[in-house]
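I am hoping you can look over what I have pasted underneath with an eye to the fold:
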Amino acid sequence: MPAINDGTAMKELDEMKWQLKEMEEEVAAFRDMQAKVEKEIRSIQGFIPIHYLINNRNMVNLSLSNHSL
């Protein structure tokens, strides 16, 4: 197995750091998006936590189908 010189190792480390930063930025964007969706859902239906909607989606779908839009 060939030895990795310090320059290559540093370049790979910098690449990994850059990828980690990108992933952290994506996570922050998803959290912001989730917060906006939860806020919009609460404003439409009153306060219903998103985990309740996800865990009870069949019940929510049935109740929504009974209403005409």
Remarks:
- The CA atoms of residues 58 and 64 lie 10 Å apart.
